[in-house]
Design a protein that fits this description.
This protein is an alpha+beta fold. The protein contains 6 helices and 7 strands, in the order H-H-H-E-E-H-E-H-E-E-E-E-H. Strands 1, 2, 3, 4, 5, 6 and 7 form a 7-stranded antiparallel β-sheet that branches. A hairpin with a 5-residue loop joins strand 6 and strand 7.
Amino acid sequence: LPFTLFFFAVAFAAWFGGFRPALLSIALSLPIAAYFFAAPTGSLWVRRQDDQVAMLMIVVVGFGVALLSRSQYGAVDRALRSEKSERDERLRFETTLVSIGDAVIATDAEGRVTFANKIALALLKCPEAEIIGKSLDSVFHIVNELTRERVENPVDRVLREGKTCGLANHTVLIAQDGMETPIDDSAAPIRDRDGTIRGTVLVFRDTTERRRAEATSRLLSSVVESSDDAIVTKNINGIVT
């Protein structure tokens, strides 16, 4: 039993120092064991056969303990580094989505919201705590502006078809407070290395200003077209356009 105490020292040295410190621990264990535990005590000479076997076991089992301890340390270290790398990657991903100029919502493979940036929350008129973990259908209400019929959630199409898709024209987002915002968007699958869909990302934007500009352009065009005067335009080089 006393000889087994050295294995803890070997394991400790291998875990924190490496294989060479573990070998040093084994080498130091032999004379210490011979001096304090092997008969006659107080001498480095080992006479009894069972003590000699115990000394041999210190060497053999010590090597095994050192290899096992170092192997376990390597596995734990790789797992921690992998976790840190994944955490850093997720942080970069979230930082990118937070700083992007469009509204972004990410979901898991079941269509539950896992992330929403500030622009998305502002358009939905919904705090983050009330959207994370919920089905996108319950928070992302879209209808056709002309028919007022509900429009299919693009995330559902992505999960069903496995490819990028966008909304049809004249789509309106109805916020939690009832405010309506014309939007256009696109949704794409998030795949792992094996190609399995792990979720989706939905990107959409407020098109109110763009629609207003288009309406103004159409109005000016209709004024020009219906004018009784002859109208010719040219660029700064004098070329008739």
